[in-house]
Write a structure and sequence with these properties.
The protein folds into two domains: 66 residues, Antifreeze-like/N-acetylneuraminic acid synthase C-terminal domain (Type Iii Antifreeze Protein Isoform Hplc 12, Alpha-Beta Complex), CATH 3.90.1210.10; 135 residues, no CATH class. Helix content is 33%, strand content 18%. It contains seven helices and nine strands, in the order ααββαββββββαβααα. The strands form three sheets. A five-stranded antiparallel β-sheet has the order 5-8-7-6-9. Strands 1-2 form a two-stranded antiparallel ribbon. The protein has a two-stranded antiparallel sheet with strand order 3-4.
């Protein structure tokens, strides 16, 4: 205790501590601040659920001090992944904001291959859409009252078996794709039904939508392998109704054009006897 009361000893201790701070602690702190590391930064806005492309991000060098542990440091890690939150220009990307697959909302739209299209039709009345009981994955038939103004109600051959990929409420949220949480006390009524169809089917559905007359009847709900049987049967009907147009071989088409041009020239050139 007497030692601590000695002002000289206290002064020496303070000097030693200050030297330690100046020549040991401070350099280490400055070194940690000055250390550089590469991270991935957003250069174009990315929406929630959007696939991240190479032109949306850039790998940059920044100070490594106080960066989150899960910050992404390689652009190869993020390209092709899906954002689980909106990302603004300048944001760095955290691994917690990435997903291998798109979020549940609109996920079905990311699996279109170009052969088929997604088209929505309105549910004018509650009964028209099976009283709100339709779900994604259902196979339905489209019933057309007064089809083509002929006075008869039919199921067009092109629309016997169609797959439902979403049932959407008026608010824009999908009502029957497993997105609703337990917290939602009141279930929203469906306003549109989105179907997976071919271009030929989409044209007929667009006409029925314009007329405002269509009903959906449930054909099958169950395992995907059984649903495929209905889709394949519908595709067989479409193949008969809309056979693929065979493209002519370019060389054969050129020969055909030459023969036609020679035939035209022979018709226009007069014979020698006609000239005399």
């Amino acid at each position: 205790m007497n030692l601590l009361k000695n002002r000289t000893v206290i002064g020496v201790i303070c000097i030693v501590l200050s030297l330690i701070i100046c020549f040991a602690v401070t350099p280490l702190f400055n070194q940690s601040i000055s250390e550089k590391t590469e991270i991935v930064r957003v250069v174009k806005p990315v929406k929630n659920g959007e696939e991240i492309q190479s032109d949306m991000v850039k790998q940059v060098e920044v100070g490594g001090y106080n960066l989150p542990e899960d910050v992404v440091k390689s652009s190869d890690t993020v390209i092709g992944k899906f954002a689980t939150a909106d990302l603004a220009v300048g944001d760095y990307i955290l691994s917690s904001k990435l997903a291998e697959e798109p979020t549940a909302e609109n996920a079905y739209l990311y699996h279109l291959t170009g052969e088929k299209q997604a088209i929505s039709v309105s549910v004018k009345n509650f009964a028209n859409g099976l009283s709100g009981k339709l779900q994604s994955g259902d196979i339905v038939s489209v019933i057309a009252p007064d089809y083509k103004k002929q006075g008869s109600t039919v199921i067009p051959a092109e629309l016997q078996y169609v797959e439902v990929i979403a049932v959407t409420a008026n608010s824009g949220s999908d009502a029957n794709t497993g997105e609703q949480t337990e917290e939602s006390e009141e279930r929203e009524l469906p306003d549109t039904v989105t179907l997976l169809v071919t271009p030929e089917q989409s044209k007929i559905l667009a006409e029925l939508e314009a007329d405002g007359k269509l009903h959906l009847s449930l054909v099958y709900r169950g395992e995907q392998k059984n649903a495929v049987v209905f889709i394949e049967a519908q595709e067989a009907v479409l193949a008969e109704l809309y056979p693929p147009v065979e493209e002519e071989n370019p060389s054969e088409q050129t020969e055909k054009e030459n023969e036609e041009s020679e035939a035209e020239e022979s018709e226009t050139v007069p014979a020698e006897s006609e000239v005399e």
